[in-house]
Write a structure and sequence with these properties.
With 273 residues, the protein is an alpha/beta fold. The protein is 42% helix and 10% strand. It starts with a strand and ends in a 14-residue tail after the last helix.
Length: 273
């Protein structure tokens, strides 16, 4: 049975917001217990709850903490016979774009496919293109310092997913609402293209960060369903309007099989026709 993680957006907190000393420009804290209960309740709806760390985000351990959560969920559901661990997909949205990219580039491969939408990567391109926006307040501690000088670059090379995409083995879809989102998350797409790894970028109608426009939301969810069914089940929607989409993905499937001959692949390659 294929399984999809939906890694809920988490707002980063700043050391419990110093209790009574919270400034307006700081993000709000999510109460870990309440969030844990809410995600647990969603398990019955087919969404796996991730590990909720009781400490605040924005630390160098954030990525590895999330990976530990992914691993524990996959292990538990595999042991319970709920999922096939070879057919696990992950969706990253907003902050969890970083979590999914991090998981793709460390340890043993967890995902058979991944999709990310409109989020932060804490990568170098995002860092330099967002000067004066404040991304450095979180990117610096998450990556171990500023990306300048020998020690700073060494830390970023070790911790930034974009500098480690050569290790990625899962096909990645970037489903971006509007040109500004394409620009913001351009680095992982460009890096995977340079590395000749399976990646696709699809532009959907611009709108709010949390997609509330019906046509935008329908396009996003339909494309994600198509993407994961293709990679996890080898299924193609017979709708003739999607012929070009599947033509691209079949070429990516052939690329995936060639680069990872020892990994199980369920997609439809271009040589299958």
């Amino acid at each position: 049975m294929p399984w999809r993680f939906s890694n809920e957006h988490q707002r980063c907190c700043r050391e419990r917001q110093r209790e009574a000393n919270v400034s307006k420009d700081q993000p709000r804290c999510i109460r870990a217990d309440a969030e844990k209960r809410r995600l647990s309740e969603r398990k019955d709806a087919g969404v796996a709850p991730q590990q909720i760390n009781r400490q605040c985000d924005g630390r160098i351990q954030e990525g590895s903490d999330q990976v530990a959560g992914f691993e524990s969920v996959v292990k538990k559901l595999t042991e319970e016979g709920v999922i096939d661990p070879a057919r696990v997909g992950a969706i990253g949205f907003s902050r969890s774009v970083y979590h999914v990219l991090f998981a793709m580039t460390v340890g043993k491969p967890l995902f058979a496919a991944a999709s990310v939408t409109d989020g932060v990567t804490f990568g170098y391109f995002e860092y330099v293109s967002a000067v004066d926006v404040g991304v450095d307040r979180e990117a610096d501690p998450i990556n171990g310092g500023k990306p300048f000088g020998a020690e700073g670059l060494k830390a970023w090379l070790a911790h930034s997913p974009e500098f480690n995409l050569d290790k990625a083995q899962a096909p990645l879809l970037l489903l971006q609402p509007g040109a500004s989102s394409v620009f913001a998350d351009w680095e992982p797409y460009a890096a995977l293209r340079y590395l000749k790894k399976p990646v696709d970028l699809i532009l959907v109608q611009a709108g709010t960060h949390v997609m509330t426009n019906p046509s935008q939301r329908l396009a996003s969810e339909t494309t994600n369903v198509d993407w994961f069914r293709f990679w996890l089940q080898g299924y193609e929607d017979p709708n003739k309007e999607k012929t070009e989409q599947y033509g691209r993905w079949e070429k990516l499937c052939s690329m995936q099989r060639e680069q990872n001959p020892d990994r199980p692949a369920f997609c439809v390659s271009s040589t299958a026709h």
